[in-house]
Structure formats: structure tokens, C-alpha cells
Amino acid sequence: MSNVDSGPKNDSDSEKKTEAARDTPSGEIDVPKTELFDAKAILWTFGKCLTTLLPVYLAGYYRMSTSLVVFGMMVYAGWKHTREAKEARLKSAIQLVNDEQEYISSKSFRSRRDLPSWVNFPDVEKVEWLNKVIQQAWPFIGQYLEKLLTETIAPSIRGSSTHLQTLSFTKVDFGGKPMKVVGVKAHTENDKGQILLDVYISYVGDVEINVEVKRYFCKAGVKGIQLHGMMRVILEPLIGDVPIVGAVTMFFIQRPKLTINWTGLTNLLDIPGLNVMSDTMIMDAIASFLVLPNRLTVPLVADLQVAQLRCPLPRGVVRIHLVEADGLASKDGVMAGMSDPYATLRVGPQTFKSRHLDNTLNPKWGEIYEVIVHEVPGQELEVEVFDKDPDHDDFLGRTKLDLGIVKKSKIVDEWFTLKDTPTGRVHLRLEWLMLEAGTERLEEVLKRNESVVSKTAKPPSAAILAVYLDKAEALPMKKGNKDPNPIVQISVQDVTRDSRICWNTVNPQWEDAFTFFIRDPSKQDINVQVKDNDRVQVLGSLSIPVSRLLSCQDLNMDEWFNLENSGPESRIHINTVLRVLWLDEAAATASLLSSDPFSKSSASRPQKTTPHSSFASEGMLRIHLVEGQNLVAKDNLMGGMVKGKSDPYVKIQVGGETFKSHVIKENLNPTWNEMYEVVLPSRSTSDVLVEVFDKDVDKDDFLGRVKISLQEIIGSQLTDEWFSLNDVKRGRVHMILEWLPAVARHDRLQKALGLQSEHSYLNKSVPSAALFFVLLERAHDLPLKKSGKEPKPAAELVLGDITHKTKVCERSMSPEWSEAFHFLVHNPTDEILIIKLSSAFEQPLGSVVLPIRELLSKPDLLMDQWLSVDGAGPDSQILLRAQLKILDSSLDTSVLRRKKAVVEEERPAVEQHKEKAPVTVEHSQAAVSKESEKKTLPTKGVSQLAASTLPRPMSLPQEPQKQTDAQDIDDHHTPSLPKTQPATEDLSKVPDSTTNEGGYMEPIKTFGSAHEEQKPEEQSHKSVSPSAPAEESKVSSSTELRPQKTSHDPSFGNKGVLRIHLLEAQDLVAKDNLMGGMVKGKSDPYVKIHIGDTTFKSHVIKENLNPTWNEMYEMLLTPDNNLDVKFEVYDKDFESDDFLGRFKLKLGHIISSKYNDEWFTLNDIKHGRVHLVLEWLPTSTQRDRLDQVMQMQSSQTYQNKSVPSAALLFIYLERAHDLPLKKSGKEPKAAAELILGGTTYKTKVCDRSSSPHWNEAFDFLVHDPKKDILVIKLSSAWDQPMGSLVLPIRELLSKPDLLLDQWFGLDGALPKSQILLKAQLKILDSKMAALVAMGSGPVLSNKQTATTGQIQISLSFQKKLTVVIHACRGLVTSSKDSLDTYVSLILLPDKSKATKRKTTVKKKNLNPEFNERFEFDMSVEDARRRELSVCVKNASSSFMNRDKDVIGQVQIDLGHVDLVSGVTEWFDLKEEQN
To answer: How large a percentage of the chain has pLDDT more than 70?
Structure first.
């Protein structure tokens, strides 16, 4: 924080600070410390010392033990140390707080300056200036709203009801907290004649409004309002005169979040006329008033068609085909395992409800609905699925879709996964119907609608009609010669709309608009009735045939119409507009022909990413740190009288990365031979800063620095030169700097891979061959969390040992990241990218495995598409862009093979005679930004360094090596050897290296100025002393010395699967007796299944002697005819479970029968039997059997949530080769962990070896071979990771006999690290799968519900909903006496007092007659949205048996009853479902 610029400074000051910074190795500026010395402080310190010595004096004076004094001093020292540490932390915190603002401002400045070019900012803009304007204008806005309430709204409320004629506002105060505009988004793709804005508002106001109704002595009010939401503002029409905008229209597309703090609400709701309302209903009414299709229009100029602005023609109509649902959750109890599903569809205030289907998890509705769409994008279709229940309907899931997607796609026909539920999806077909202003296609539309089949009562519409009700003139007076309160009722077919009321006028002006669906324009009429607000006195009527519009221009008729049954001059002005609903046939055909699920989902999602122009534009800087010369000696001896050496190392800083070399001990002419790589933008302005330091125990000494311009390196492509060190007396560093542009050319890959075999470096770096760029844009339909909530998606990208993480998104199943990453790739044919999706990096959501080699076959090495997510939902996908670019090096590999420049030829002779001490290498423990590319290994001397820095010839002799001079250089010390050459080299063939006087060999350079090639005869006599056992020379990486296949094991892959389907039981013994056994009770049965050492246990069925479990268990077994499969049934009790019977079967009997659906009698008990389906599943290598098995997975559901396996995966892990050494340099104790889904196996831990042998076999149950992935993790004794293998099971499906037997390369290990394994997939050949495919299979015998009688009911609607309860017959009772019965009625979903009714009680009668009539005051539309729950109850049940008072019940969906005509039927009564 101290080095943040606070302003311009003196040049000399800055130079002084720069010089000070040079003394520190990191270049950081030391913070100056100020110390205060005065006499008072010295005296205070002296006094404290005396006080400290006083206990010592007293202890000696009184001859006390010295141990007490020492203990006391230790306590004091500890206390003082703790106090000083606490004070230091407090000072640091205070300093941080003081400098925080300055630090943040400077940091933000730097962060803005260094932001990557692909970062985009949202299109929602902040408008703080507008908030300031609103804040200053808020008092005057409050005055306007107060005037509006008292002068306009209050009279309207008083006139709306006789009970509210004395209502008045006693206080109106809109407070001092203004509304805030959080952000504004301006749409640019809308019509040119309007301006479209989305205004995000947040209002937390201190409003205080008091209202009084004097007639009822009622006082109530509002004290505080909160409103949050997105309001759309439309400025139209745009005119060529001031004020430019003709009107402002405002509305909410989605219901805003509204919170009102009421005062005295209970008093207000006691007023007649309001007592049927609740606070929730009032909030809903207020909120819905603000939402589409309601609009608030404020005209700014005169003579505007306000009605058409307030209700413009819709954008279109969406026809919704609710086709079916699949895999819904089971809600009707554990035993039944079914649901009674129905769906509700909602677009704004438009709501539809489907019929419910009994006892199914895969309902097929086949219903059609039509919705008017006012604004796109914005309006959404929300579908919710419920399970029909007598009391409370259970939630089965929901899904949402923006209707703007339907408009863009014309047709969306796909399955939508339900959210907020563990399982289930719904099939919708959505059609966008355009509004045609002509009749050319009307006949075609009518013919097409005739072929549309729907199970709903209403056929599809051919057109929509918009009626704009403007005004009327000269209406007649109502009775008593009073001005009327006119209201208009407009009816088309069976749909009626009411206008608003104009109070006390004969010339009303409504300016309302209404929309109607028209099935056939030639056969329907528009009926208009003008009435007084009591809706009794008719002030005039009118009938207009819709067919008149067909002959009008643009299907528009704007006229005055004379009213019938009215005054002589009474007339009304109405504008009617007809539009034909047209579905684009071409788009429909294209959508129907597409059967690819990805193409169906593509209608609602972009098919390609939208990368920034700078994506994949970076290149790579490769830095080869070769050596140093003539460095300054810092480690002087005898006080500087004798010149010593230095322990030099180098720090390189570029592009925010820092690289640090290893330390060369006691050398002024060090050779590092290290390589570093960094990815940078080609337009980067940063420099390469190279600093040399001398390693010391306390503080490292500075040995010089040099700064190199990156742009100069990029311009020259390759720079090979000595750089003189600045700020010191002498010294220079030899570096090779190469800028490698990245090109999308596959033919450059071999050259890039060839460079890897030409170099080896002491820091074990391997030159990268390519750059891999990934843009992760978004995901779609990710699974929910285990809690049922939407996840907070995040992604982790892993390639080798490099990991990147995305941001954590807000809760969503379709998140958007739009983040770009890059990776250095060493071998594109072997490396794999793994993308792990999770919720906030905690709960896994799935993964994507992308082998890099797949891009090599793509045009421009580019992939841009949706990829399925393994381990997630069936429709879960991610959209990413992956680009591979080969690094194009300007080095010539043929020249590199011939280059053999020797270091000492460039060194001064004096330096060669000075350095006689042997060279050793010290490992630096400093943190390095890229550990995988900068790790160092210990070397034993210059002889090894010489061998490792030589260029490796491609054509080495293939004869066996006879010399053991270089046996200390094994595979692990030379990772860049080509795979075709042996691991050990004959160093007698190595180019000559000059021997110094000390007897050690100087290292040979890889790069430098050109020198003459040495002749073979000069090389023949050179050798290196052996430093390893001779046996190591026999180790070779050649594949000819290893078996290419695993050894044959006759027992491999001979296991099968025993599948047990526990269905039900009957006639079990009752163990839970009552009253000492005098009254027979029930049992709580469960089953235990024993197979060898494995035990399965079913769930407990409460109080049932005929339970239904419907559970499935699977077990992998080796065929053994004598193995017993034991079944035991118990009654669950608090203390000891009671025995209910047993039986056992031989596995050989099950294998011979293969499929057995049978009832088994229980032994050792009086009675009882169990229904089982036992199946032995043989295995097959026929690929075509898989689809049939997968079909059974989707059609069968079990209570224990088990999923039938589709295949078996057999793995034989034999051996590994050339595993990496441990960090300590020792060979590993190799072990392997195999993971597939939730199943994990571990091998034995081998003795220390780089080529261990396991020879172990494993087997897995596979549920979906197309998605499951096997992961093998290798480690040393489960501690240090040594690499991994990812094997997608789907790769076996394309192999002969579904078998792989080969060597596999390991990720995260050495280039030659491999494992040898055999993997075979075998499909489970299930007879049950064949039966299920034919519509057959096991059948449950136990009945779930029983009929308890019948009830006769009449239903009709004549101004009110009328229900007549006639009689009951055949009521069933367990009592010997007759019943006292009555009938209870509830109109669901409301359970208020207004929706409940009940009949009188009929004494002692099982066939009672009631003949009672009940009426419910509601509209026919409201009635059709409700369900009538009818319960026949026993009035004589005791208080203790109140839960058994329901004899039977029936639920009637009024939406499927012809209420206008009326019906009278007998309905079956069912038992109450708990």
C-alpha cells in the first residue's frame, strides 16, 4: 500500500527510491520506519527494567526457590509476546483501513487498465442522474398523487358501492423517500416509430395514507409500501413536433414484488361488500392491475387514439399443444406408486387448467389452448403440474419458456424437464400464429383447423377480434330522470367482457379495448349492450356480424352505430379490427421433419457462441535461459581480502508471471539451461524483466538486471544473444527469446512435436506444441440440487495439471458464464479436457470429457457447438467454443541436430582457469506461478548436465548398448527423449566437452553461435564415469519388450446378474393385536433377502397384511448352483421384530429357469405368501440388445428408486509402465483406484517400482453405457497422485465384441507412462425387458382403493353455480349398526367459509335421501376453474375416531362438466386416500 502513487513527485526523490529498490531482490520499495528518541522514553524504559529485576532481588533476599522466579518470568514473557502481537495486528488493521480508499482507487485504476479485451459489460445502464431528478421532484410528485387520490380515485370508490359512500382520505403523505431507478435497458430491435425501455425500479417508501368510512366507524390505512420489479416504458407515437413523444405507456410484464404495510385492515374488511376479501386478494388485485394486459397510458398531445395505445393489437397468438408428460413423481402414497396429474398453464393473467388423469405417471392430455401475446421478449409461459388430491394437490414440478423464443422459431416442439422436482418432463408443442390483415389465407386456416384434434371443448380459432370501445352519445336517462352510470357488455359467442363504469353521464367516454378469439368469422356476431351499473336497466343494444369486417379494407371497421332499444339519437362509437391467425407452413414443415433432439432444442437456444474478436488471438513467448558469464562475486572471504564466488539464480517477470531458476552454487559463470513459456496478447506492451541475484542465508544480493522490450521480440520472432546486466559493474546473461504465433494449421503439428524431441532442460520443461482456447458460454437444463433448489452453477476446467475455474452464477438451471480460458498443450493426440460442473463447487452436476484429438479433424481446428453433460439430466448441455492453434516455431530442426556449440569457446580463458571447484545444484523452494513447467530435479554433477543439455539426434544406433558410462541418466531425468529411442544412451557418441583443470567437464550448450561439427573419431574416446548399477542399462521404453495384450484369464467376464423384483405379499399373520389378543390387529411387514454375505432390506409397510413393496435389487454373482437365496419376512416393532415366515431358493434353480414370476408360500408360519419376480440375466456382446434394455429403464419405476442395469463392465488391470518417481526421487508404491458412478474399487499397493504388476479383475454394473465414464486414478500408496485415465464406456460400443485390450496413456504423468488393461462391456439380456416392450410384465394383485357406495348429484349454472345433493346408496360400513350420515361440499382450491356447505344429518340409514340445494355466487368462468370435493361422512363417529368419519368421497372437475345445460349423475364414492 505504501507504493501507491499519490501524485507527482520530484525526479530526484524518485531516483533515490529507485536506487533503494535495487538493493532488494524483488524490487519492492521498503516502507520507512520512524523512531522517536527522547529523555522521557529512556527514563520510562529504565524504570521498567528496575521493576523487572525487583522480583529477582526479593527472591534472593527471602531465599525463595529460583524455579518460581523463572516460572514467573516465563509467564510474563509469554504475556508480553502475546500483547505485542495483538497490538501489531491492530496497527496493521488500522493502517489498512486508513489506506483502503486510496488502495482501492489505485487498484481499480490498474484493473480497468489491465482488463482483458473480451470482457463485456451488461446492457443495463445506471441512471444516477435520473434518481437525482426524481429526488428533487418527489415532493411535487407527491402533491400530484395526493390530488389524484382525493379528486379522482375517491369519487370512483364512493360511487362503486353504497357501502362506501362515506369513504374519504383523511391523510395523504407520500413521505420523503423517492422511488429509485436501479437501471435502464434500451431496446434497439423494436419498431422505428417507438422507443422501448425496460426500467428496473425499487421503491421502499415511507408512505402514510389514512382512509375513513364514517358510516361504519372504520379507520384504516397504509404505512409503508415496497415495490420492486421491471417496468416497460413505451414512448409512442414519435411525432415531428414538440414534445416529440405523443404518449407514454407503462406496464409490468411480470408481476412485481409488492409489499404493503396495512394499518387497521381487519376493520376495513368487516365492511359489507369487502368481507369476502382477504389481504392476499387485495394485494393480488393491486399487483395484477399493474401487469399486462393492463397498461397505464398518459397522452402528451391531443387527439390521440388512447384506447389503441392502452390496448394495441397483440404481437401474436401462441397455440399451446399440451401433449403429454413422462416420468412424473409418485405422490399417491408409497403403496400405490402413482399420481393423478393435471397441468396449469399461465401467461400473465391468462390461466388454463387441463383435465386430470387417474393413476398414471405418464399422462397423455392432447389438449390445445390459445394465448394472446402482448410483449415479446418478456412474456413467459409457465406450466405447473400437480397431483390431484381430495384435500391439497401435490406439486409435481414446473417449467418456464420465454415466448420470444416461440416467435423467433415459429414452432417449438420438445420435451421440457420439470424443475423443483427430482423427476419428470412435459411435452409441449408451441406454434406462433401471425396476425394477417387479409382474408387470402382464411379458407386455408379453416380447413387446417378442421384437422386439428384436441380433447378440450374449444376448437382452434381462425382469427382474433379486437374491439375498441370509444364513447357514446345521448344515452337515455335512467328511472327517476337521473343520469345513468353506463357500462358496456360486449359478447362474442359464450365470452362476455365488461367495460369500466362512467359515472353520472349520458355521454360516456370509456376508451376501453377487448380481444376475442373467433372460430369462424362468417358465423359469429358481436353483441353490444349498454346498461346502467346495476346491470338491470338496458340503455341500448347493438348486434354486428363479424362477417361485415371481411369486406372492409385491412379488416378494420371504425364507425358510429345507432343503438337499438334506446333514445332516438343514442349512438355509440366502436372500432373493430379482425386479424386472421396464420401459421407459417414452411417453418412448421421444417420443424416437423427434424427428429434430432438437439435440433428441436435449438429453436430455443443459440446454436453458436458469440466470442469477442480477441478470442484465440494470443501467442506464446518461449524463454530459454542458457547461461551467465563474469558475474559479480558477492560471497567474499576474510572480510573481502579474498575474492569468493556467488550462488546465482535468475528471476524473470513478464505479463504478470514470475519464473525463478534454480540456484547454481559457487559459480560466476553458471549454466542454467532452463525453459519457460508464457501466453501473451500479441499487442501486449509489457517488457521482459530479467534480474539476477546471489542466494544468501538472510538477504539475497543483487547481481544486475536487464529489461527487454516484448514488441522487439515479437518483431524479430527469434532473439539469440548475450544481454549485459545493468546497475552492476559487470556480467551478462545468454538467453534465447522466441515469439511463437499460433496458427490453425494441422500440417504444422509434426514440426512442433519434433521440437520436443530436440531439447531437454534442467527444469524438466517440455516445449508446448499448441495452444488450446476454450470459451465456455452457457449451459442448459442442468439438474436440480438434492434439496430440490436450482443450483448455483460453476465449472472447473482441467487439462493435465492445469485447472481454471469459472465464476459461480446465481441460482439457475441455464446459467451463462461467457468466460474464456487457454491451456498449453504438449501433445494434442493424447491430452483430454475435462469440464466438471457443480453447484458452487460443492455438489457435482455432471461433466464433459473432450479429447483434444477430436479438434484435429475439424475445419480450422475449431469446434463450436452444444455438448451433452455426462452424469446429469438427459437434456443437460453446455455451449462452448474450442479452438486448437499450433505453435509455429521459426527454428529449423535440421539445424538444431547439427548445432554443437561449446560454451567454453565463448568464455574468456581466465575464467576457465579460475573455476576449479565442482558445480552443485541447489533447489529453490520459492513459489513459482506455473509449478508444472518450472519444477527442478537434483543432478549429480556437470557430467549429467552436459548430457541433458545436448541436442538429441533422431537417428541413434539401435544396437544394444554395451557401455555403462551414463547409466545414471534414466528415463526420468530425460523426459524429452523421443519414444522410439532407448532410455539409456551411449555417451561415447556424445559430442566432445572440454575438461577443465579440476577434472570436471563443462556443460555443452544447445544454442549459441555456429561452430564446426566435431568428427566421429574425436568423439569416440570421450566417456563419463559410471554412477549407477549396471542393471539399469537393461531397462528400455521400447514397446517390443512389453506385451501388447493382457494375459488370458478364463474366469474373466463370466459373472451374471441376479435381479430380484419384490412385488407384494398376501394373507400375512397379524402380530399387532389389541386388548391382549381379543381384537385382531395388523402387522408392519418388511422383507430381508440374504445372498451369501450380502443382505437387502425392504422398507416397512404400516398396518397392512397385504403389503405392496414394488422394489428391485441386483447383485453380481459367479454362477453357483448350490448358493442359497434366503427370504425372511418380519413385523416391525419397537423392541424385537416379530417373525412372519421364511423360504429359500437355490441359485441353480433360478439360473435354469432364467425368469420366474411366482407366489412363494412362507414356511414356519401359519399362513402368508410373497410375490416375486426372479431373473437371472445372462450377458451378451450384441450391441442391438442395448436399446430394449434402456427402454425398460424409462418404463419401470420402483419404490426404492433403483434403476435396472443395462450392462456389465469387466476390467482386468494387469500392469503399468514408466510411472513417474515420487517427489523425493524414490520409486512409487503404485496403487490404482477405479471409479464408475458411485462404485469404487482399489487395487493392492505394490512394492516400490515404476512398472508395477497388479493382475486384478473388477466388475461394474452400468446403467447407461452411452453416458457412464470409468476413471482410474493412480497414486503412490494412496498419497501422491501419479496420473489418471478417463475411459468413456461409449468407446466400447464401437469395438468388436465390445472389447478393448491395449496400453493406455496416462494424463498428468510422464509422456511414456502407460497402463495395460482389458475392458469388456456385456449387455444384460433381460426377458422382462422383452415383456415390457410388448406391453406385458408383472401385475400387482393387491387392490389399492375400494368403492364405498354412490352419491347422486346435479350440477348446473343459472347466474349462480347450483349443486343439488339428491341421495346416497349402498354405503359401506364396518359397523353392525346403520350410520348417521351427512354430506360435506368444498369448492377447491379455496377452503374459506364461503366455499363450504353441508347437508343435514340422516339418522340410521345406509341409503339416505337429502334433496338439498346449494348455490355459490360466482361467474361461470370462475366455476369452470374449480373442483367440487364431495365427502359423505359419519356424524356418529366418536371423538377418538374422528379420523375415520369419512365414508367415501368424490372429486368433480367442473371444467369438464357442461354447467350451462346441467347434468345429474351417480358418482362412485372412494375410500379416503391418506
So the answer is: 76
pLDDT digits (tens, 9 = 90+) for 424-445: 999 999 999 989 888 888 888 8
Which residues is 397 bridged to in the sheet? 385
Close Cβ partners of 762 (under 8 Å, ≥ 6 residues apart): 662, 672, 673, 674, 921, 936, 937, 939, 945, 948, 949
Q: Give the span between the Cα atoms of 979 and 987, in whole angstroms.
A: 18
Radius of gyration of the chain, Cα coordinates, nearest whole angstrom: 43
For residue 186, report the phi and psi dihedrals to the nearest 5 degrees: -100, 125
Structure confidence by residue, pLDDT tens digits, 118-141: 444 456 788 888 888 988 988 888
User: What cell was used for 1002?
Assistant: 563443462
Which H/E stretch holds residue 749?
Answer: helix 749-758
Q: CB neighbours of 1158 closer than 8 A, spacing ≥ 6?
A: 1171, 1172, 1174
Confidence at residue 16, expressed as pLDDT on a 0 to 100 scale: 38
**The three cell numbers locating residue 328:** 412424473
Residue 385, CA distances (Å) to 45, 60, 876 in order? 81, 90, 21
Answer whether 596's CB lies under 8 Å from 99's CB.
no
The residue count for the chain: 1474
Confidence of residue 232 (pLDDT cuts 50, 70, 90): confident
* Residue 549 predicted with pLDDT over 60: yes
Report the C-alpha gap between 1208 and 1260 in whole angstroms. 6
| 552's grid cell | 372492409
Residue 812 DSSP symbol? -
What is the distance between the alpha carbons of residues 190 and 374, in angstroms, rounded to a whole number? 14
Rounded Cα distance, 694 and 860, in Å: 48
- Cα separation, 323 vs 363, in Å, equals 9
Q: Is 313 exposed, middle or buried (0-12, 13-18, 19+ CB in 10 A)?
A: middle
What average pLDDT does the structure give for the chain?
77
Q: Which of 69-83, 671-685, 906-920 has the lowest mean pLDDT?
A: 906-920
Q: State the amino acid at position 457 in one-letter form.
A: A
Least confident range from 118-132, 944-958, 1382-1396: namely: 944-958
- CA atoms of 740 and 527, how far apart (whole Å): 80
Three-state SS at 776: strand
**Residue 384 pLDDT:** 93
Residue 1206 sits at the vertex; the CA angle it makes with 1203 and 1209, to the nearest 5 degrees, is 115
Question: Which single residue is written with the C-alpha cell 522521557?
Answer: 40
Could you give the CA distance from residue 182 to residue 124 in angstroms, rounded to a whole number?
Answer: 9
**Which cell numbers hold the place of 1004?**
555443452
**Secondary element (H or E) of residue 383:** strand 380-387
- Terminal Cα-to-Cα distance of the chain (whole angstroms): 68
CA separation (Å) from 1162 to 1110, 1144, 1463?
A: 18, 9, 52
- The number of beta carbons lying within 10 Å of the beta carbon of residue 1047 is 12
Rounded CA separation 1159/1140 (Å)? 16
The amino acid occupying position 832 is: I
Nearest residue to 1130 via CA among 1152, 1157, 1099: 1099
CA distance 2 to 630: 36
- For residue 340, CA distances in Å to 332, 756, 1341, 1432 come to 8, 66, 20, 21
pLDDT above 70: residue 1336: no
Identify whether the C-beta of residue 225 lies closer than 8 Å to the C-beta of residue 259: yes
The pTM is what?
0.39
What local confidence, expressed as pLDDT, does residue 281 receive?
Answer: 54
